[in-house]
């Protein structure tokens, strides 16, 4: 069975960086995910700044499991695409220098048909970013949720000479009515990190709702077992996208839940 190593999304605390690191360490996390749009500023990070940041993280006996770099639009939108590609490449380079093996982003909705021009354009961008990531030493990890695991896996496998990893997000898959089990099966060893969320379907409202970890329909014992069969050695990242007054307590409960698995 996969070892449930737990990391915390630092931006969830809504605290200055050092205090957020202290909070993550106090909850028993072993690593953190940095947000490139709130925790750090890529363009402002000098070599000295990178060394200082790495030392600060190490002082709390933590590692950087990944860098979240959420672009305003996916790579399926032509408007401003070249800027997003260049910015992602910069994030990949900075992530490597920080010691983070992954850059997590939602790549955009994947068209269903491989002969769709938008599909081919997206595949070309993913291929380019996959090659660049392999060159610099930090990989792009495409977050699941906007399409099925099978559809995403097909896109990521379109270029056998480029590698883009996957970031499994069970809650988003459930919200969009996709199978988490199928995503684990289809994406296999591409899954290098789990964004540990949970959700339920509200049939009355006709949509999915995110809930606290362990209180939804995501079967985390089965997820851990399924990933373990595929040699998964990555982290389960806890923490919501937005900080709330109860964030620290919710993160602590999520860390405890995953540790107990």
Strand and helix map with partners:
Layout: E1 5-9, H1 17-26, E2 31-35, H2 47-59, E3 63-68, H3 81-98, E4 102-105, H4 117-136, E5 139-143, H5 149-156, E6 165-168, H6 170-175, H7 180-187, E7 191-195, E8 198-202, E9 207-211, H8 220-228, E10 235-238, H9 247-260
User: Strand percentage, roughly?
Assistant: 15-25%
Strand order of the largest sheet: 1-2-3-4-5-6-7-10
For the termini, the CA-CA separation is 10 Å
Helix/strand order: EHEHEHEHEHEHHEEEHEH
**Which residues sit in consecutive blocks of at least 5 with pLDDT less than 50?**
none
Number of strands: 10
Envelope shape = globular
Query: What is the overall pLDDT average?
Result: 94
Radius of gyration: 18 Å
- Give the fraction of residues assigned to helices: 40-55%
Total of DSSP H or I helical runs spanning 4+ residues: 9
Oligomeric state as shown: single chain
Q: SS-based structural class?
A: alpha/beta
Q: What does the main sheet amount to? A: 8 strands, parallel, barrel
Describe the 3D structure.
This protein has nine helices and ten strands. Strand 4, helix 4 and strand 5 form a beta-alpha-beta unit. Helix 3 runs parallel beside helix 4, helix 5 runs parallel beside helix 7 and helix 7 packs parallel to helix 8. It is globular.
Would you summarize the structure shown here?
41% of the residues lie in helices and 18% in strands.
């Amino acid at each position: 069975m996969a070892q449930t190593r737990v990391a915390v999304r630092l931006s969830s605390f809504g605290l200055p960086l050092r205090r957020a690191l202290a909070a993550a360490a106090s909850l028993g996390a072993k690593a953190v995910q940095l947000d490139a749009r709130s925790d750090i500023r890529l363009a402002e990070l000098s070599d000295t700044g990178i060394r200082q940041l790495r030392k600060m993280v190490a002082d709390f006996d933590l590692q950087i499991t990944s860098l979240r770099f959420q672009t305003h639009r996916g790579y399926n939108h032509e408007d401003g695409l070249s800027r997003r590609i260049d910015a992602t490449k910069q994030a990949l380079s900075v992530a490597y220098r920080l010691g983070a093996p992954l850059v997590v982003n939602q790549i955009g909705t994947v068209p269903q048909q491989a002969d769709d021009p938008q599909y081919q354009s997206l595949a070309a961008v993913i291929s380019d970013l996959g090659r660049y990531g392999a060159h610099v030493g930090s990989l792009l990890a495409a977050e699941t949720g906007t399409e099925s695991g099978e559809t995403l896996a097909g896109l990521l496998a379109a270029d056998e000479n480029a590698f883009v990893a996957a970031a499994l997000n069970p809650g988003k898959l459930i919200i969009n009515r996709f199978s988490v089990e199928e995503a684990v099966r289809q994406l296999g060893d591409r899954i290098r990190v789990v964004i540990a969320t949970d959700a339920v379907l509200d049939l009355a409202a006709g949509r999915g709702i995110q809930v606290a970890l362990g209180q939804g329909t995501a079967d985390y014992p089965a997820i851990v077992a399924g990933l373990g069969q595929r040699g998964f050695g990555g982290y389960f990242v806890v923490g919501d996208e937005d900080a709330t007054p109860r964030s620290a307590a919710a993160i602590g409960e999520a860390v405890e839940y995953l540790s107990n698995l």
